[in-house]
Every structure is written in C-alpha cells, then in structure tokens.
Design a protein that fits this description.
- This protein is an alpha+beta fold.
- Helix content is 18%, strand content 24%.
- It has helices at residues 125-128, 135-146, 152-166; strands at 4-9, 12-17, 26-29, 34-36, 44-47, 50-53, 61-62, 68-71, 76-79, 90-91, 104-105, 116-117.
- Strand 8 and strand 9 form a beta hairpin.
Length: 176
C-alpha cells in the first residue's frame, strides 16, 4: 500500500501521498470501519442506507477534479489518474453521497467545479456523468429521473438554507 501523511495548510487538513501512485492502482482497502446510524461530516455512504466511519476516508478532502475514486462496491480507493508525491489526495464527494450532512461551498478552482457540494441529489445527470459515480448513487439518480424528482425548487431551497446557515452573501449557480 501507499504511504500517506497528514498535511495541514491554510486551506485545512488533508492527506498527501509520499510516493507516486499510478492510475488504477489500489491506494487503500477499506477493511476496518464502523457503521453509523446517521450521516456525519466524515462518514461515507456505501449504499442507499449505510454510512461508515473509517480513519483514512474521514481525512480525504473533496475535489471536483479528484485523483482518487472511492469504490463502495469493492470497498477500495483507486487512483483516478497518476498522482505525484506530496500531492493532496481527494475524491468527488457526490460520488458516494446522495445528500451531504453538511453542504459547503467548493473552493477547488477546477473548471468543472460544482460550486456547492451538497450531494448527488442536487447535481444534474450531465454533471454526474463527468465523474465516477458509485452504483447506489447512479441507481438513486436514475430512479429520481424516472419519477421526475429533480426540481429547480429543491436546489433553490437548498441554496437559500445554505446561505442562512453559513452566512454566505452570494453564490454563483450555473443552470444545468
């Protein structure tokens, strides 16, 4: 397995690798975890009804241009692309989360940034199709599409709630 270190910067705390990781390489096998009854800020959703807490997963940050894939079926983290030594490790949170416990404004700076990370429920299928998305999220998104549950009102309500809870003055939302 790959050696990692905790790294703290002005942006916060995350994990970095101390050696190169090649695309497709298994970075971490998820074997020692605890099931939790409710989603938390650091839990990861592994199926429609199950969230887990795990020491490595809980320290991985989000990016809209991630270098890791969390495969919840195989219970492993895989390099989505070549990763250089000392590069921060990240995954696309909506790839595992239908609805986030604590949404936040993304500051990754990627051209494909989703701006507000609230879970896959709040992203269009076009946006989701650009990323690796786990089976339980794909299934839920497609069932919502069939039931026509993706509504602009839900997204607007979420943004308004997010603004109220965080004190954010403005958010830029691109209509999908």
């Amino acid at each position: 397995m790959v050696k990692i270190e905790v790294n703290t910067t002005a942006k916060g705390t995350g994990l970095i690798t101390t050696s190169a990781v090649r695309k497709g390489e298994v970075f971490h096998r998820i074997t020692k975890y605890k099931r939790v009854n409710q989603p938390t800020y650091t839990s990861v959703q592994i199926d429609l009804d199950t969230h887990i807490e795990e020491s490595i997963l809980g320290k991985l940050n989000h990016s809209c241009n991630p270098n890791l894939i969390i495969n919840t079926t195989a219970l492993e983290c895989v390099a989505a692309r070549d990763i250089e030594p000392h590069e921060e490790l990240s995954f696309f949170y909506p790839s595992t989360e239908w609805e986030m416990d604590k949404p936040f404004v993304c500051m990754c700076g990627s051209p494909q940034c989703v701006r507000i990370v609230a879970g896959a429920r709040y992203l269009s299928l076009d946006i989701l199709s650009l990323q690796f998305i786990n089976r339980h999220i794909r299934h839920k998104a497609l069932s919502c599409l069939e039931a026509k549950v993706f509504k602009k009102d839900v997204i607007v309500e979420t943004i308004d709630t997010f603004r109220a809870e965080t004190g954010a003055l403005s958010l830029s939302v691109t209509k999908a």
